[in-house]
Predict the structure of Translocation and assembly module TamB C-terminal domain-containing protein.
Amino acid sequence: MDRVRKFSFFLMTAASAIIIMLVIAAALVLNSGMIDLFAKKQLLSLFNNEYQGRLELKEVKLRFPDQVTLVNPGIFEEKAAQPAARADSITLKFNFLSLLRPKITLLSFKEVDVDGPQVNIAEYPDGKFNIEKIFTRKRPDDPEVLAIEKFRARRLKVRNGSLSWKPDNAPAYRLQNLRIDMSKAFVAKYEFMGTIKQMQFTMPDRGLTLKKGSGSLAFSSVRSDVLGLDLETAKSHAKLSISVDGLDIFSGITKKKLLKNRTFIHVESLSLDTSELNRFISIPALPAGVYQLKGDAKGTFANLEILPVSIEHGDSRIAFKGEMLNPLDPESLSFNLQIDKSTLSPALLTKVLDDERYRKLAREAKGISFTGMLRGRLDEWMTGIDFKTAIGSGSTEFETKRLAGGKYEVDGAFTLEKTEPHRLLDLGEVKSGFSGLGSFSGSLGASGIETAHFEASVKNAFWQQQTISSGSVTLDLKGKKLDLSTDLKSPDGGSLVMAGLIDFSTLAPSYEAGGTVRKLDLSKATGLQDFRSDLNGRFDVKGQGLDLASLNLKASMVLEPSSFSDFRFRERSAVSASVVQSAGSSSVSLESEAFDFSVQGNASMARMIETIQMASACIARETGNAAAVPLPQGQSPWTFTYRLTVRDLAPLRPLLPAKELQFRGTASGKAAWEGGRLLLDTDISSPSLSNSPSLRMDNAAMTGSIQCASAGVETARLSGTAGSMSLFGRELRSLRLNASFDNDRLDASFDVAMPQFTEKLSAAFTARRVGNVAAVSIDRLALTTPKGIWQSAPGGTLEVAKDFLRFNRVRFEKGAQSLQLDGLLSNEVSGTFRGTLANIDLAEANYFLLDPALKAMSGAVNASFTVSGTPGAKTGDLDLRGSGVTYDELNIGAIHLTARHSGDQLRFEYESRGAAAQNGSRALLPVNTIRGSGTIPLVLNYSPVEIRIPENRPLRIALNSDDLSARIITWIVPIFDRAEGVIPTGLRITGTMPKPDIFLTTLLRDTRIRVGPTQVTYRVNGEITGTPSRIDLGRIELRDSQENSGTISGMIGLDGLKPVTVNLAASFRDLLLYSKKDMKDDTSFGTISGTTNNLRFYGDMTAPVAEGNLMLTSANFSLYRKGSSESAKYIGVEKYITFVPRRPAPKPVETAAAPVSAQFHYNLLDILQIRNLRLSFSAPIKGAMIFDRIRGERIEATLSNLSLLVNKAGQRFSLLGSVDITGGKYTFSNTSFDLENSGRVSWNNDEIREGRLIDIYGGKQVTATDVQTGERDNVKLLIAVSGTIEKPNVRMGYYLNDDPQPWSAVNMIGRQSSHIDPNADLNVISMLFSRQWYLHPEGQASRGVSPVSSVGISAGTGLLSSQVSNIVQNLAGLESFNLNLGTGAKGNLSGLELSYAMLVPGTSGKIRFVGTNTTPIAGSSNTTNYYNGSSQKIEYRVSPKVYVEAFRSYGMAGNDAAYINLQKPSENWGVSVSYREKFHTWSQFWNNLFGGKKKEKEKDKKE
């Protein structure tokens, strides 16, 4: 066995060695190249014999066992010189044994490596490709020698390849630098698949490079798939998959096949940059940038379902889904798409839109967000969109149809919400809103819109402040004619109704419109308050042309009662305007109730406007304006005449830059062009002209003319007069001006009177232009004052140029006083200047500045001002000295100021020293000693004059005074009317403009200050510091005359040196707060002291707030009722006594007075807001409420238990609380009542004078006598005061003997029930004045006594309260009713006078009936010493002071010598004319009557 085993092993070893040797030998033979040529020949023979194309091959390299390399293979079309495809080499790795098969149908390679392939594919007109022709068999009927059906490669690599594909009639596509790395490649007759791991190429002709490519490809006769395709270029990237069932790409792709095959498209991400996309497909309308697409689609191309798809570009996004039918056939295409939430960003819209106006609108809208749908076919589709932007939102639905001839028809509806129309019109300063709905329809073709109809209904809208609550707008276009109509209404009843027609068929469109307006307020529509109006009426417009050259217009409006600005139009007032132009003439007119304007000429309106431009250009030449418009040359002559009549300027005021301009008058003239010259003349007449309170002219007239040529103004004339003129409050009269310009010579004169200071100013000068210099000669300059004449010295001249002023001995003098100017004043021209003031009396300063406030100034001033140095570096020096300078009672004393300006910097030093007597002594002590210096940046140009403080330049100012007079406080703070003492003060300013650092320090050392409204003087100590932002009060101590003290501390905020905020806190103890004497007027008087620990004053200075607690420690205060200084109407008694109120109420006059401009002046109390200020008492105080000062009607009481909460908002005080009346008196006429302790005054959020008087009772004990029975009764007279402080109500009653219930004319007196005595009031009156009964309440009523026949009167006695007169007056309803009593020498009631008056209805108060009755007391022991009677009078008021009267009197007359009442009563009739004048003194009467009226009027104005 061993031998057998050994033999077998040896045999196997030998066999193996032999095989190995054979293999090695075979490999050596095969790899030696011995059979490469054979293989090459075989390949060429097989290919060239089988196909119509030919194969060329340089060599074949066989490397056994598994590699074949083809060197320079190439395939050619038949007879072609250039290969259709070639390669540098193709290396194949495969198993050689597979070639030993009987029939090779499959070529399977481990690896195919193609190096340098070049493939050129071309399409021929017959639709075939060159490659297809190459592989066409020469003998299709013979059996295939190369029957290879399949090709497989585990790895396929292509390096440095190129591919060219030239479609028929289309640009070629060329790929270069092609690199492909592919795995699992499989190719069969109707099958191709593989996985691309990496693919790269460039397309030089399109500038495109594929940086990376991968994906899986699978194509067969039943399905085509491209899965996971990932392509990336320099700017684009795509990841997608496409799968199509039943698509055989090998048999060709047709539309019919695609319609039947199911398709699924999945786009994971597709980013396309337009710069690369446009290299293949040009889409100019598509904005540049990267577009990203994501989405899916499935179905067939006959019915394709679009799954959610989104397209994004920047912040823009469009998302949609739906279905599309036949997308490959435009004729059959239909779609149904739902648009999900989508956005078009402002960036995208600005790229799409060309017009900058619309681009701005897109930015303001912040893009468009929308959803909707799109459904239909290409010839008819429906669109529905809901959109939202920053300027509005809405929705629209419309249907579009394509008609024959390329026309389209649209029909739809829309809804808009909160849309801002002003942004659509690019009106940035306007605010608007619109919400509404409507419809639209129309048709359009290649020529544009042919027909259109638009209707909109307004739900709510506004334009500026104009609100539109409802309305409609309709537009109807047919061809070239547009009909329009509107009907808009506002909530306040305003409306605009209009209808019109526009015809666009001609080059100059014609139009007409008409309508009505109601309550149209242009200020709401424009947002400009100057355009406030209330327009009502009908308007009509008809015209042609929209540009200036073709405009012809006629417009009118008939107004109902309307107003515009401050002007009111009358009923049926008309406003009309017209523009008429023809070939050789034109006219413009405007007529209204306020003004008329007309222009006529023999040229067009364009020429009319050119005339205005030429006039401006002519004047601009004289001022050296380089922008002047040159005058035209060679034009035919033309002439325009114009006329303007202004009755009221109010309607034009909103259009004028000077809003306060007032003008009434006419202006007329002519403008003509002839011979290259423009001639203008004008004539103006104005009875009234003003521009704000600073300028006013009356009875002014002016005429002027000017002639212009190309060189400028040739001649000009101007003359004017004014009866009176007010300039900055200074009154001027008899103003005359004359000026003429001819041949570069100007002559002018000026005269004016200043009556306020009895002055006259007269001036005349001559100027001649020499080059760019005007030489001016002062012919006359004189100022005549009450103290003499200031006049110019003869020979004075000056030269005026653009950059210098030269004065040649210009002197203005009066006696020893003089102003002299000499030399050249300029920054840039060489020369020196000197100006001097000599012995100027400051008492005459008011004559130059026309300021009455300067009357209080006195002293003398000398000064000199020099300018010298080199051009561009001039130095100005000022030296001013004053002596004896005073202002009112403020002694400033001697003043010395020196200043130097050099290099845009001003340095100065100041010193003043005054003296005043102190503490009543005759010795003078220094006061107002002020020293200071500083450096200020200052730009000072002399010609032209410019004075400016530059910003961000350092400045320094320091002023100090150790003895500054405290009187200056009364000027700074008007609430103080007296100040005594000195206040050391220091002022330091540093930093830069416009916000320098300012530091002010003021020390108050026993400074006495009196508060004007309260008349309390305090001694003040403390320190005040100030900066530009605030003023700090550091614990200011106050002491009154009783040495009671308090403190104030806090700050006042400043802005631009103006107080803007305040925060002050005060505390004091028993400090005197009010100490005012009775001024015999309506102002309160008395004394008040109080204590507080937390009184605050804070807030914005426009509405500061006061709050805290205030305890009144002592008070004796009297409060007047409003109007308590005016007597009521006394009819009849004026024949004895005339009452003249101190402050009479204004009475209306019959004649219309000129309107006086109303000015609103407010003080601190007007703007002060009080919040929860608590007032209380610490002890009972005294107070008085005065109802009528003349009659002496008042309550004087002791007050306690005060608890008040005070608030004030705006101008209204609000008091909450009450105060008790614990004693006092109620006084009227010459008697008084003792008050009970039960009274109270209560406020329930009322004004102080609206406090209610509650349970105020007064009593007076008297003994009354019944004259018939002689019985005497103990009577306690009773009054009950109710109502309010402003309108008190007094009831009278009495207690009889011991009766516990009072008697009165009504069943209640105050809150007490009472017996009824209809004569109670007269009983109280008779007992009060004569201690006797008028009619005893328990006696018989059959005495036959009547109120009129039982009492008499004695003139001059005390007057009864107006409350008694009101008893009858209120019942009778007369104009006035007065019951007045008098007492005799012994104090008894002597008589009564009853007077009354009534106005005759229908006479506007001009006719009045007056009656009086006088009677003695009934039952008097002496019946012979009285008189009685009655009188009646009818008076007619001719003027407020002149009356015509007719009267009748009846009765018994008596005198001091004898009295008798048995004679027959006498009756007298008469007429008279009277003149009435109220006066306090006889001198006042004579002044009013004979020439003193003017002074009284001035005095009243000051008050």
